[in-house]
Amino acid sequence: MVELKVNGAVRQVDAAPETPLLYVLREDLQLNGAKFGCGLGQCGACTVAIDGAPAFSCLLPVGLLAGREITTVEGLGSPDKPGPLQQAFIDEQAAQCGYCIAGMVMRAHTLLARNPSPTDDEILEHMSPNLCRCGAHMRIVAAIRRASSRKEASRSQRGAL
Amino acid sequence: MTLPDCPALTRRAALAGAGALVVSFSLARSAFAQDQVQPPQNIGREPKSPAPLPGSLKVDPNLDAWIRIGSDDSITLFTGKAELGQGIKTALLQIAAEQLDVDMGRITLVTADTARTVNEGFTAGSHSMQDSGTAILHASAQVREMLLQLASARFAVAAQDLKAQDGKVVAPDGQSVRYGELVVGSELHIPATPNSRLKPLDQRRIMGKPVRRVDIPNKVAGGPAYVQDLRLPGMVHGRVVRPPSPGAKLEAVDAGAVERMPGVLKVARDGDWLAVIAEKEWQAVTAMRALAAATRWSQPTALPEKTRIFETLAGLKADTTTINQKQAPPAAAVHTIEAEYRRNYQLHGSIGPSCAVAQMQDGALTLWTHAQGMFPLRKAVAEMLSLPEDKVRCIHVEGSGCYGHNGADDAAADAALLARAMPGRPVRIQYMREDEHRFEPYGPVMTSRGAVALDGSGRIVDWRYEVRSNTHSTRPPGAGQLLSAQMLEKAFQPGPPQPLPQPEGGGDRNAIPLYDFPSQSIVHHFVPEMPLRVSAMRGLGAYHNVFAIESLMDEAAAAAREDPVAFRLKHLKDARGRDVVQKAAEAFGWSANATRESGRGRGFAFARYKNLGAYAAVAMEVSVDRETGGVRLLRAVAAVDSGEAVNPDGIRNQIEGGIIQSASWSLYEEVQYEPRRILSRDWSTYPILRFPALPRRVEVHIIDRPGQPFLGTGEATQGPAAAAIGNAIADAVGVRCRELPMTAARIKGLIGG
């Protein structure tokens, strides 16, 4: 048994300690947000926040996570009641297939939490570990900008960095 | 997630249901104002006798279940197309809601499912709006007319005096009746009439508007959205052990220790196909790795030498066809340009590796899959399992973005084999990253040669173009097209590769320029033998051909000392083509004698996808580092004409994404291999564009054509974006890169020094 704190709730999970967090989130806790993309920490589809920092859940054994605050995209809101960052992604229609998007939202969340007003270059640099294949990048950046305290600039600059 | 097959509403049940309003088609060719002469969905061969019916009815004229209205006011819309991330669900709902005069939220949409929907072939080739959108447009309009007729009888008021409004028909005196009430007791099975009374353009409130996509809220907030998110009761997890290289034979496996690992239910082997099933997913992954370590494979030298791939392609036997020829009296050429263009193997690389869930119950298989064609897949899987087709049901559930024939069909086949090995239990498989990268069918290697002759006035007087390529479709329905079926003890062989016919074409897609040259010859050298397994990748041959043609146009413009945009317009009569060229140039701020900073350049390109779909022009600005050859994208401006724009934001999203994706393909992407191995196994060995490489601006201008036929848009900018980048590089540093991808190393090699 492993004890995990996920989205503010303590959960007991029957998983071997070496199991990567991603599999526990998806299978044991039935959370859809974090996705399997590469299992190698190369694409960011599995990104979650651990104590406020972005992490590749596909690489993190659950045995190392006791007492840590794990936040997944489900912790930011729901499809019916999206959080502000999620709403910004909806407002910008910042997805095509959307498979990467939960990871994008989580990585962006960790940026805005420590830097509410990032420059475009800071956004690009911070988002660099996460891959999108559909080419929704411009909208993803626009959504992050919209959710930041620079939101005044976002509408007029759609499609621009 | 909610199972897409519950409740068990089947197409047959829908047809038989009392109180159901069903529209079937038996239309003459002239029926659809929206129709235009188009070959059917890219099923790999032409129909024996083209059916004189519009849209999807060309493929299957027996379509009879598009729309159902229940006595409870429920409205169900059926499409044989699938959501691939392109936003098709939303666009189809917009069309139906508009024509039926209901809110989009009132309509339930059922997408591709062999038990419930029409067979619209593959969701591919930018056909969904043309095929399914057109059919739904007319079906919905005719259902509304029928409802008005029913209400007319009920109220004894002439139909033209009635109004359909928000799911009701309203009479001039204010009395109204709900759609559901109108259909109660009606056993309606009415064929559509030849003419649809489409809602007048000026009354439209949903079509043409940038409606928000219905699928995005779940995707940003962790709602169930993908086949990867399916969790069926009792579901177990499978993984396959792929050989170290394609074609390797499994010589020995010692599965004993793996079978005793925690959670492992079964090790399954059939010939060279090897898999493991476990209770939990991570157990399956762990067991798969242990099993892989307990195998011995033969090591054939089966793959080509990458450094010699273009010589290899040139040396393979080809079937040669002249696909287009135009002759004029010989003119005096003062310039002749000859050049060869090349494209390396590239891969689809969905962010989510392919996934499928299958369950074998009482001798029947149900398969949840994100493959592009449910009916062809059903045929292939039924053949592989020796089951009658009616014992296999394929249900489309969204997966990660598709971009063509990736590992989706293969994963579905693996799920089917796993389900056969574990009857009764639903089995889920998701590929590991290296399974997808090493074994998906790639976008083919291609070459083309162009020879362009110009006269003294800078006009092209003769255009010769020859393209050499493998097939661009090795899709099902043959079981032999499924990777794992080729590995079974009783192995299925892939059918002989076939070229896709013109006018859509495969390797020769967009090989015929849309420009007006007095004399031209276009030749397709179809190479059946495939050094590496290949199939459809977004745009097919159009990506390479448009890159080559539009690069040649710039080379010709340079020889004529003319501005590239003016030079294109001088050779282009097509009015809509001219419009997108002019729009993109104007929005970009293109001027014939602009001065540029050193190392910066601009490029332009244009094509009409397949010469049948959307028109797109792209202008691009880049900077090139002379020291490294590295290219930096600065901005892109596109103009597109997709006919009537149903969801302008959906079009914009596709075009923006197409430009970014094509930029990634064109600057960075080529599959690496050596004679015994595919070396591109992850994102470090097959790098793609990351955020810091984005251009500073991507601008899309839509030229809307209300009332005109829908033109497929999803693949329209793959070629133009590539060519615009190549032309911008040439403008910046004076070297012409004729090989895709235009890597920093290639450009540095051309610059020299």
Automatic annotation (TrEMBL), chain A:
Keyword Metal-binding assigned to the entry: answer is yes
Question: Where does the record place the 2Fe-2S ferredoxin-type domain?
Answer: 1-76
Coiled coil segments of this chain: none
Q: Name one GO molecular function term.
A: 2 iron, 2 sulfur cluster binding
Keyword flag Iron: yes
Give the UniProt keywords, A-Z: 2Fe-2S, Iron, Iron-sulfur, Metal-binding, Oxidoreductase
Which SUPFAM superfamilies does this one have?
2Fe-2S ferredoxin-like (SSF54292), CO dehydrogenase ISP C-domain like (SSF47741)
* Pfam families per the UniProt record, alphabetical: Fer2, Fer2_2
Which segment of the chain is annotated as a signal peptide?
Answer: none
Put simply, this protein is called (2Fe-2S)-binding protein
Organism of derivation: Alsobacter soli
Starting at the broadest rank, the lineage of the source organism is:
Bacteria, Pseudomonadati, Pseudomonadota, Alphaproteobacteria, Hyphomicrobiales
TrEMBL record, chain B:
* Recorded GO MF terms: oxidoreductase activity
Which parts of this chain are annotated as the region Disordered?
A: 36-56
SMART domains to which the protein is assigned, alphabetical: Ald_Xan_dh_C (SM01008)
Q: Which residues form the Aldehyde oxidase/xanthine dehydrogenase a/b hammerhead domain?
A: 221-301
Query: Where does the UniProt annotation place the signal sequence?
Result: 1-33
User: PROSITE patterns under this entry?
Assistant: TAT
Matches recorded under SUPFAM superfamilies: Molybdenum cofactor-binding domain
- What is the official name of this protein in its record? Aldehyde dehydrogenase
Natural source organism = Alsobacter soli
